[in-house]
Design brief:
Mean pLDDT: 95
CATH topology: Alpha-D-Glucose-1,6-Bisphosphate, Chain A, domain 4
CATH class: Alpha Beta
Radius of gyration: 15 Å
Number of domains: 1
CATH superfamily: START domain
Length: 143
């Protein structure tokens, strides 16, 4: 399953990159995240690996999500491998300067581990979450 979302953020590309490249900032704009712990690497970069506690379904207990930086090309591209017991997520962020702002695109390729009949619901949930996260990121960086 593939998903894509794009948003314009009225901030310079380096500022947007600095914020999203450090996954420890994610709980500030991803409400479903409870914590992010960097397990390897001492800062954002190609050697970074994280343990993320997230709550993809409200009122259920948090799940562990392991995240590895697979590609790191500041300030324009970062690809992550994320895995939990629901699926394997290949997430790519692409940033492009546009005037004084930045166009941020997120592309997700998801290999679900959940039963096939749940895929349409999962797709809607993930799409909705990405939209909300992008709106929160925009408010945070532009505010």
């Amino acid at each position: 399953m593939d998903l894509e979302a794009t948003i314009m953020i009225d901030r310079p590309i380096q500022e947007v990159w600095d914020h999203i490249a450090d996954l420890r900032n994610d709980p500030a704009w991803c409400k479903k995240l409870e914590s992010v712990e960097q397990l390897s690497g001492d800062r954002p970069g190609p050697d970074a690996r994280y343990r993320v506690m997230h709550r993809p379904v409200p009122l259920r207990k948090p799940k562990e999500l392991m995240v590895t930086v697979e590609e790191y090309a500041p300030p324009s591209r970062m690809r992550l491998r994320e895995e939990d017991d629901d699926g394997l997520f290949d997430v790519t962020y692409e940033l492009e300067p546009l005037g004084n702002g930045t166009r941020l695109t997120q592309r997700d390729r998801i290999d679900w581990k959940i039963p096939r009949f749940q895929h349409p619901i999962a797709r809607r949930m993930v799409s909705r979450d990405i939209t909300k996260q992008f709106q929160a990121l925009k408010r945070r960086l532009e505010g």
